[in-house]
């Protein structure tokens, strides 16, 4: 693992924040613009957690920015409250509560529908602020007279009245916001957010309740916006009504895109570019209304040519330089095939040993799945004992994958019953099934492509060791008990120890297939389903993976679907043959090979391979 200097980012940020008010004026930034950059940078941190880290594009941040700001400004101007920090915190909590209820509604949808709901929410808030609530918000006049923040230290009172002291006040809160966000993205919670961004379905299948994680980060982003809204009022001495405008949300999105999403610093840099250019076009070049057009064109150019934004471009260059120095190659097939996983590592994995238990582990009765008029599975009775290795074969379209999807609770059966480990799981969801120890590896790889092999395995292990949802935002990832041991044990088992720090997108296909199996294994399942683990592999990769499967099979209960009969017959103690959605026959590999019904089913297909 790459060693990182502790608190390097934090230390560099402090230096940058100290230098900024002295350096930036020489580049043409006005003191007010510098202060505004910090406010926008802070809203942007929350938005980046939501969009850059979790993949949720929201246009509703103006609703929280405005609400938090108005709450704080109202308390300071219309009530006897004098504490600016108290008002800021109350405004933040209010924005968080509003965010919670809006999140409950908006997060029922994903993708473009989620984004459209947030647009509508921003518009509703704008209307409400201007009309029904104008007595509280001042309507189009906003709330003037927000007092300058004061800090009473007992022996002295600091008043943040001039630009530089206000900068210090804002920079302090920006730094606090950044440190919180850095802790969050380095925590197990933060890694699950990235899993949701990369592959929400797989994150769910690995036992994470993604809906609750999304709601939590939505609330966090709302609180950042609310706090920054409060700061805006304090900075200007006036809470402007345009904080609620949809344009505010749009600017946050654009600034993050310019600076680089998923970087935390991107929004700050994006805000600097955006605000500088808008000042420059309006006041220096006197472009009148045309400044928006020019700024729009600049935005398009920046986003088209810097796909990952300014911070993204810098880190891409850094990564390329690092990659140039590293020469890690995929392991050779011979080397992998020659290696046997260590028994010690299997023990480290702590999988729920099934050898000690006896009897039926999973039983399905009358399992049926209809897609409209098509019966993908009909009336299947099936059971697997503890410690058994069961093979499932059947021609294309026989209903094997659908059967697996029902067993892992990805799709609900039309009728029938599934009992796993003594519990009826027929109507259970995939998250709970995984938490119970029932997982599958997919026919088509379902990995977290932009993350490293280590992070992929960590996501899988976290689902087991932390349960389906945990708000451990401030816990360091490496402090999660057994995480490293489980990750390294699994990597050794699937022969990826030397590739732990490689991005998944850099892996060879065979390595990705092994990682796919590794993800399922890392959840320490008591029943592991492998859907065509050999699919799409070259002959050499098959040799390697069959050896791997044999090693995995020891002491586990497995159900394996594959079209490679030789490999499957070598591995399985018993084989179930599906045809046209029904069980055709069940028996030992020898019985299946010689069964005329099976030969008939495969006639013209892989019959030749079987005899
Ligand atoms: N989501 C779906 N909607 C409609 N039909 C579906 C759906 N999923 C599967 N089917 C249909 O159900 C039948 C069984 O498909 P399934 O993928 O389970 O078969 P399979 O045995 O796994 O096939 P293969 O070996 O080609 O992967 C097929 O006719 C398929 O078209």
UniProtKB/TrEMBL annotation:
SUPFAM superfamilies membership: P-loop containing nucleoside triphosphate hydrolases (SSF52540)
Family annotation (Pfam families): ABC_tran, BCA_ABC_TP_C, BPD_transp_2
Keywords (A to Z) from UniProt: ATP-binding, Cell membrane, Membrane, Nucleotide-binding, Transmembrane, Transmembrane helix, Transport
Transmembrane segment boundaries: 7-25, 37-56, 63-81, 87-107, 112-128, 164-185, 215-238, 258-277, 289-310
Membrane topology (UniProt): Multi-pass membrane protein
InterPro entries reported for this sequence: AAA+_ATPase, ABC_AA/LPS_Transport, ABC_transp_permease, ABC_transporter-like_ATP-bd, ABC_transporter-like_CS, BCA_ABC_TP_C, LivM-like, P-loop_NTPase
Gene Ontology cellular component list: plasma membrane
Gene Ontology annotations of biological process type: D-alanine transmembrane transport; L-alanine transport; L-isoleucine import across plasma membrane; L-valine import across plasma membrane
Subcellular location: Cell membrane
UniProt xrefs under CDD domains: ABC_Mj1267_LivG_branched (cd03219), TM_PBP1_LivM_like (cd06581)
Gene Ontology MF terms in the entry: ATP binding; ATP hydrolysis activity; L-isoleucine transmembrane transporter activity; L-phenylalanine transmembrane transporter activity; L-valine transmembrane transporter activity
Ranges of residues in domain ABC transporter: 362-605
Name this polypeptide is given: Branched-chain amino acid ABC transporter permease/ATP-binding protein
Annotated source species: Simplicispira suum
